[in-house]
């Protein structure tokens, strides 16, 4: 097979690849992650690259314009290599980390996390529901009595005896690694050592034995592994203090935007390996930045807890997810043992532990269990709803008596993916929009007050609501008005929110009819799933005590507008509670308390999975929800229209 | 540094070594184990080799005769390499496997093992003391119900549910290795799999998941790892049947005859590695021969249980034994977790489990715990004694109320090591001897009725007793008589048992005054230790209900003669019980029953270690025992002398 050299700029990375391979696959080989929401099908148009030198052949598509062609712009996924190449990957086509400074990110996220924190402090600490501080991994400093002829216990039993004076551990396990070095270590450091203990499947494991007193250095990580976004926090396990939070796009997005395209990709040669590497790379990058910023030695990070949907956890652990998408939709495992992080190629202390919060089913994962845990709905007297608006929209209905969950394939639109100008709620994202009803002039504000880069989830909710109010779109989402901001595009009519002369990239920020359709389906899927679930239990929305909203919206979601577009049911506004990233919050609670770890286990067993697709009423409900706000306006009595 | 090539014959193995290295160290590099009881100090004279070609320099010593020099015979440990060499290693200098046919070995050992078996069947199965058949590793065949939309448990939980229908395991652990392959395996084999479950530190581990029904193939190994001899048995874990038994010299003998010289060697560069490799090589060789002979696939050997003294277990697990010989004599660990055999470089199933029976102290190891278990003295009403006459002579005194143990450095003489013509109780060993009181003519019988190769432990007891009776030696062990069989040697006078024209090697089989001194110290150490232990508890030998004798003597030990030389106390003959290799028997019981495993743990904690060296009366008692039978003849009222 003929081989060619492909050099990627500005990285200046060269890889040798077979003739006829796509530029996208060459980039993956080079370790460069290109945005590819559709998984390489030539549909999403995210993987635009510039071929600077060399010959390529490209499949025809409706995305690359004549102007693009003049500028040598190609879709990486549809363009095959015919000679040595030099390819420029523009910033806008990359799956990169936020360029937010740590301060900006903290500020941006502080709202969210203090909300999650509130639940911890308000609800969890009432009466007997306080979670005792008993982190996943603990350090104990021991100044052991030296052995004598009278007290000649072996080194290991001497260590165990001292540990059991701290706590009556029934079973302590230790690997040969630690035992082999024990004799010399104890004597070299005059019997003063620090033992790192980890909770491991109902036993206690000696993870590490270090010289002297290192109890001050004990850190852990909590993670939410989303299909689109991965968030991680570095936590001081002694003080429970969150040292820092980072979020990044899941680099798996290079292989498709939702779990189904990922599962399909996993079945290709090396597909599982690519997906596994992408998620572990993303997490390792987050971890590296966190420890560097907070001056923590990676060797002092001894454990981590991850929550994610079932497919994400399979990919993290290099487990084949194939059967998740085949009837009867069975995962390899929902409850996983405590592992070493190294087994998932995560770089913390080489013996550090990894726990994945157990999931409920193939489509209701550990992220939902974490959400139920951190939202506290499992202890409410009245029925409550928890919605996590991610790529998979999971919905839980329940209280202290029962918990039922379902999953709506919402798609990543509200995470800013799969829509033309979408982006995550990070620096430069348009998050608030108002449209003048007369001249359709647009006012907006961006996160961090930066030049606009795109539109995040809360921005889209504002936008749709304002376009409805201004009469730019009708209830079906079709663009009806005419003005200078409205023009034809390959994806139907489009409305320009911000012209290129004001944007970061120089390209117009727009919403087109395909985007609107996409967003409508997302909101329809979520609303109808919640509606069916409530009916299934013989209830209606008026019975709901609280409606918890989790997810990556940001803090600026306007409830009235979300109801106006029919994303949320028309309920008393005071019942809605934003809880931010409840999956990440749950991970953190499990990390910090054995009680929470054990409770998460019980909750995952307790939650009943409700399969929407088997309910004949679901498709009807969904079709009715494919309007703004709904076909049946009686369901939205407080919503008023100008149109 | 100048390098030379040394070729060993008849192996035809060549190694490159530095100038001035010894031939012994070159042989070790080549993986050839040469007998070296003294650990390379030039004392034992076991490492005789023939230098066929090349130049060497050799330190002067009293072992190599002028005749030897003419035949180019050197001691490998004292001879340094000065050019490329060709070296012949005679069979007699090697630490090799028995050349017994399987049948001969079985016959030879059957007496011993059926004795141990008797204890199992007679004592252990009385009333509630029956050990339930619950081997270390079990196989369970599962024909799982296929998942449906209604029964959509994940693969792993489906497996757990099915397993828990067999037994209510509280904690089941599974490694990622097994989980990763589970999804495909279940579907490829239509949900019919065999799960191998191992007991692991109070939890149950899924060791393996195999396609189809393989429950018929479940094998385990029990081992006694002695300083001088290693014995292993292959056992069908379904039927409890012992398929075969093998014994071999511990190849560590190349590095010294007792635990102290081994510990000293471990501190040298690569010393620990050499000792570890020697023991694991010996065990792997035993295992390989066992599985080949019995047509068992090594992958179906899923677990093993080892009993050994504390130093042997440290070396097996590559743990530094240095502190065992330094006051206050502390081991790294007496209680070890269940490990994978692969961690000790033992070749069974790559995920197979290894358990070491826990020890009591640095000088009373798991072999003693196993002996207490298999002898059943822990459940007797009356005080009993258990003596294991190995290189380390461990003695336990106790009953169901108390158990006290001590260790006497008996040395390997009764294992046929460290004495001129000594050998293990295997084919060709002289085991019975009678001497005509008139002409000192010798009659003997050998194991397997082969040409005599040397003298085993029971042979030496006969020999000493007969020499005393015939007046060849006096009570101090000095040779007093004169005849054609008695002559001067480098080690004092020597008595020829069998001239070279009748022996396998062509060399005379002899006993000299140094050998007699060696044997006298061994028997004195054992007797005096037992005596001190009995006194320490305020008892005397008349209070002892049973006197269990374990060790490698063979079945032909003559009690009267053992009492006559003062090895055993002068008690009612009916109180003595031979129990063969009680350490191996204990390993087997632990392998076959969880109750025995748990009991071994309790026994190791219960046994009190008594340090002989801190009792001021011990040295006096020992000195008095350095006579045949004893300085104080009143202690041996039934012993009659002709002299």
Report on the structure:
By secondary structure, chain A is an alpha/beta fold. Helix content of chain A is 28%, strand content 24%. Chain A has a six-stranded mixed sheet with strand order 14-13-12-15-17-16, with helices on both faces. A six-stranded mixed sheet of chain A has the order 28-27-18-19-20-29, sandwiched between helices. In chain A, helix 9 (366-375) packs across helix 14. Chain A starts with a strand and ends in a 19-residue tail after the last helix. The interface between A and B is large, with 48 and 49 residues.
Summarize the structure in short.
Chain A contains 15 helices and 29 strands. Chain A is α/β, with parallel strands linked by helices and 643 residues long. In chain A, a hairpin with a 6-residue loop joins strand 21 and strand 22.
Structural topology:
The structure is a homodimer.
Chain A: E1 3-9, E2 13-18, H1 23-29, E3 48-53, E4 56-58, H2 66-70, E5 73-75, E6 79-81, E7 85-88, H3 102-122, E8 137-143, H4 155-166, E9 172-174, H5 176-188, E10 192-200, E11 203-211, E12 219-225, E13 229-236, E14 242-249, H6 259-266, H7 271-293, E15 301-308, H8 310-316, E16 339-340, E17 353-356, H9 366-375, E18 384-389, E19 393-398, E20 403-408, E21 429-435, E22 442-446, E23 454-455, H10 457-469, E24 486-489, E25 492-498, E26 509-512, H11 513-536, E27 547-551, H12 559-564, E28 576-580, H13 582-592, H14 594-606, E29 608-609, H15 617-624
Parallel strand pairs in A: 1-7, 9-11, 12-15, 15-17, 18-27, 20-29, 21-23, 27-28
Antiparallel strand pairs in A: 1-2, 3-5, 3-7, 4-6, 8-10, 10-11, 12-13, 13-14, 16-17, 18-19, 19-20, 21-22, 24-25, 25-26
Helix pairs in contact in A: 6-7, 9-13, 9-14, 11-15, 13-14
